[in-house]
Amino acid sequence: MAEDLYSALGVSRSADQKEIRRAYREKARKFHPDVNKTPGAEETFKRISEAHDVLSDPETRSQYDRFGENFRQYAAADAARSSEQPRRSGGTRYTWSGGGAQSVNWEDLFGGGFGGFGRGADHTAELEITVEEAYRGGRRTVQVASPYGGAQEYTIDIPAGAVDGQRLRIAGAGGAGADGQDGDLLVTLRVKDSKRYRLSDADIETDLPISPWEAALGADVSVPTPGGPVTVHVPPGSSTGRRLRLRGQGMPRPGQPGDLYARVKVVVPRTLSKKEKELFEQLRDESSFDARRGS
User: Is 164 in contact with 128 (CB distance < 8 Å)?
Assistant: First the structure.
């Protein structure tokens, strides 16, 4: 029979989260296989890591207290019998996924090495978002691998006008601190171009398809922007590559929003009706314009 998880950590069943974190830190320093090469140390480390993962999460701890060692199977069966799935409040969920002992950065785990008993270390992660998400902001979920196995999810609020490389802080989601003050999780945003928009600092660029007659004669056309469609005037004689500037329609920035540039892209019909073909032939015969010479 496997050792009780509370016994694995050396804590009572009434231990609070601070006691559980402290007990895990002490035993992890002693039995981690990168430090302890004696037979059985790795298996002990796996067991105390599992004990910490289960008991540090209120939901899994409650299931373990109720069902014992096979709580996952019993909890799943119990949930299947229930017509209403239990819900958890907050934006954090922890799932134990097992796995073998891993090589761990001790400063990340223990906030400054074997002698560190202060604030827990800050952990880092990256989150890739689109230009549209950076423009309007919103909520996203980031999943962070735990250094001792498993993964944890956090819901973060992305501010409108987010910048590539911007860091968002989730307080208390970093390394455990022996004095009860955990480190933070620092999430770096990476803004990627989408199919429609390209980002350059606070400015946004997008392609603006127009017809040959709109390019030649000029027209007022609708341009999609992350904030909604905006009408722009295409001057007569606009060729592919011309950039039309929409002031203040780029990324929102305090006091100085960016601009949006609509790059003209002349598009010809794939097929022509009989009448359209006649009109283009008439234009060809009447026009002295030479595209190769630009006159």
Answer: no
Residue 129 to residues 192, 194, 227, Cα–Cα distance (Å): 6, 9, 17
Question: Exposed, middle or buried: residue 201 (CB in 10 Å: 0-12, 13-18, 19+)?
Answer: exposed
**If DSSP states are collapsed to H, E and C, what string results for the chain?**
CCCCHHHHHCCCCCCCHHHHHHHHHHHHHHHCCCCCCCCCHHHHHHHHHHHHHHHCCHHHHHHHHHHHHHHHHHHHHHHHHCCCCCCCCCCCEEECCCCCCCCCCHHHHHCCCCCCCCCCCCEEEEEEEEHHHHHHCEEEEEEEECCCCCEEEEEEEECCCCCCCCEEEECCCCCCCCCCCCCCEEEEEEEECCCCEEEECCEEEEEEEECHHHHHHCEEEEECCCCCCEEEEECCCCCCCCEEEECCCCCCCCCCCCCEEEEEEECCCCCCCHHHHHHHHHHHHHCCCCCCCCC
Dump pLDDT digits (tens) for 44-61: 888 888 888 888 888 888
Q: Cα(194)–Cα(197) distance, rounded to whole angstroms? A: 5
pLDDT at 102: 32
Residue with tokens 């892209």: 265
61 in Cβ contact with 55 (< 8 Å): yes
CA Rg, the chain, in Å?
Answer: 30
- Arithmetic mean of pLDDT over the chain: 79
The pTM (predicted TM-score) of the whole model is: 0.53
CA distance 197 to 206: 5
Estimate to the nearest angstrom the gap between the alpha carbon of 228 and the chain centroid.
24
How many residues comprise the chain? 295
CA proximity to 144, closest of 90, 185, 203: 185
- Count CA atoms within 13 Å of residue 7 on its CB side: 6
Q: What is the pLDDT of residue 208?
A: 95
